[in-house]
Design goal:
- With 150 residues, this protein is of the alpha+beta class.
- The protein has 2 helices and 8 strands; from the N terminus they run αβββββαβββ.
Length: 150
């Protein structure tokens, strides 16, 4: 019995070793449009930033599967005003964010470009979430993501 378990574990390790390199360079990508109303911020700002917004009203969160260790790149663009971008783990913890202030760019004061982007390494197979949040912008934005397996 012990020999059978050892043989099974050995075969599983060998299969895993060949599965990783076989997937190396595999690219998965997607794009979609999000619609969200600006977050009404009058005086007190939520310490969680735009993550404290109402899902489906001020932010749109979409799952993305990482099939193996690799790199996720996300771009949020095609908007006017100020949007924020977050990548979250399965528990909702922020792994990466882009929260530039585009409001001064709208006024012609040389603020951040009308985009938010993040690039982050991902270790192992996981489900992540991309959250696009309308802080104070136009109601429509575009999300483009790409995942490359290492």
């Amino acid at each position: 019995m012990r020999k059978a378990i050892t043989t099974f574990l050995g075969l599983a390790l060998v299969a895993g070793a060949f599965a990783g390199p076989a997937m190396a360079g595999k690219t998965t990508k997607g794009s979609y449009q999000v619609m969200a109303a600006p977050l009404p911020v009058l005086t007190d700002v939520d310490p969680n930033g735009c993550l404290g917004a109402v899902e489906g009203v001020h932010k749109v969160t979409t799952p993305v599967k990482a099939p193996a260790t690799g790199k996720l790149s996300v771009l949020l663009d095609g908007f006017e005003g100020d949007w924020d971008l977050y990548v979250l783990d399965k528990n909702g913890a922020v792994l990466a964010s882009s929260t530039g202030d585009q409001t001064s760019a709208m006024a012609g004061l040389g603020g951040d470009p009308m985009e938010e982007k993040v690039v982050l390494p991902v270790f192992g197979k996981k489900t992540l979430s991309i959250s696009a949040c309308n802080w104070a912008g136009s109601p429509v934005a575009n999300v483009t993501w790409k995942y490359v397996v290492r």
